[in-house]
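Researcher: Going back to the complex we discussed earlier. I've cleaned up the inputs and rechecked each line, so this should be the final set. Can you rerun the prediction on the complete assembly and write out the structure?
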Amino acid sequence: MTDLKNVSADQNTELAVPVSSAGSGRRFRLRIFGRWVGITGLLTFLIAPIVPLFIWSISFRWFYPAIFPTEYSGRAWSEVINPNNDVVGVAWNTALIALVVTIFSILLGVPAGRALGLYEFRGKRLVEWLILAPIIVPGLAVVLGIHVLFIRAGLSNTIPGVILVHLVPTLPYMTLVMSGVFANYDTDFELQARSLGAGRWATQYHITLPAIFPGVVVGALFAFIISWSQYVLTLLIGGGQVQTLPLLLFGFVRSDPAIAGALSVVFILPAVLVLLLSSRYLSGDNAAVGGIGNI
Amino acid sequence: MTQVTLSALTKQFDQKSDPAVDRLDLQIESGKLTALLGPSGCGKTTTMKMIAGLLRPTSGDISFDGQSILSIAPEDRGAVMVFQNYLLFPYMTIAENIGFGLKMRKMDRKEIRSRVKDMLDLVQLPGFEERRPRQLSGGQQQRIALARALIVQPNVLLLDEPLSNLDAHLRDEMRELIRRIQTEMAITTVFVTHDQEEAVVLADRIALLFDGRLQQFDVPDAFFDTPKSVEIAKFFGGTNFIPGFYQDSEINTSIGRFSAPHSAVGEGDAVLSIRPEAITLGANGDNSVTGTIRSHVYVGRYARFRIEIGEVEVEAVTDPGAVKMFSDGEEIPVRFDPNKIWVISPSPDVALQDGG
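Model: Rerun complete. Updated structure for the full complex:
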């Protein structure tokens, strides 16, 4: 940690030199400082918890009071890679489910968010409450009710059933994010494009999409991660037939901490990766989000 | 060159309220500059959006050169609207903004680039291709918005309050630019404004709307010389209205009988209207009455007097020298030029004004 701070101080003075005016220099220094606070926070809360998990995954003996394992082993990782255990297959499965859930969340959440953000209609408050309800009501209660329906519909123990039930917690986030985006959106831009000769679809593609894209990325990120880390809903609706990483991981937590550690690393990495890839859209001073502000 | 005809055009947003546009009949001449004038909320912009195809009329018809265009999508109408707040697409460069319409028409990139350059020259902003909308001032954005519309060579150009967001000096520049381009390209142009002066200076013809209804459709000076109602005359700065009875080219009022050869109405109750400039102070003869000067204001280029005649008060605008000749409280003869008197139909507004 202290190393990091020293580095930041060095960077600081070094980078601030070329800036001529004192005021903008201070602002620049402040921004650099903010960036380092952000990176430090990210490391502390996101990366640091992975470290012990990783150590677990390569340990053979690790008992109190030893700070580090007394013996190391690649057993856990070879188990993870072992084709017989099909960890890679389950990870694919999980990713595929999360991806489909994300796509459906976008397809349903964007129009719903548009309706809520832009238009006034009778019963709007009620619709807002109903959309929020899955977040407020405990998931377990929701899924017990849904389970009966899904059994009747033949959806339980199937991947489509799991995808459907994952939409229950993801859709509210997607819809809420998009309704916020659309509340600051001026539909006259679409009319202007139409008037200039753009058809319905061309307008959606050239005008609407760029304006809402950062919001869609943020919403999609929520949807993906919620689905990716879903345990209870997958367990109940999937009935053990549909295997995902969280289920696999949970099974090892008590029986074999080393494998659980290795699985956790596999489990966390995509989430961190997705987050880093889309961080551009999450930060406030990027051009696209700024564009939204202007609209 | 396209002639735009509106027939019984009506837009009602919801059943409970009055229509925003009410049975509007209008023949917009091809290649001319026509103003839709009226106070805010009178249905001007609604009318314009209907012409552009961005709003569906409740009833009535719109036709270009005699062909109804109601079933034609906005992108195929060839009627391009420039919005009041410019609406430059924020995530595109200026060149991409201007070229947008051509790109939608699948034009070759090179061709687009050269036409964009021509357009930037036309609106006097050469070299702005790679800039971003938010780097531009309001006046510059307005010109880019205009260029973006003109580049597709529209049959009808629709401008929503083109000058209202600009400073006074930019306004003059923009006014000249619009006039020049419109004359050069001879595009049928309709613009919306709430400012009667703007309409008078810029338009070939003005359609005046109150509450979604067409009041008068005429050349600009007609609104000063021969307004159809007291409300219209007032909107154009008329101040003197005296109720009376009109018969045989004369109007008999509480302050006397005036000969008035020009009238919008036949025999019966009517209102004498006369513009402040048409009242001469200190002149005897026919059509003159005696009044008392109540107050005056010296404005520099002219002077304004308030004169009490019997129980009515009129306003007269004279050359500035008059302030040296007359003083407040003085009783003087006041002449109403018979050729400048215009008789209009009675209005409830005028009865109210008498008291004051």
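Model: Worth noting: Chain B has two domains: 4-220, 239-355.
Researcher: Good, that matches what I expected from the previous run.
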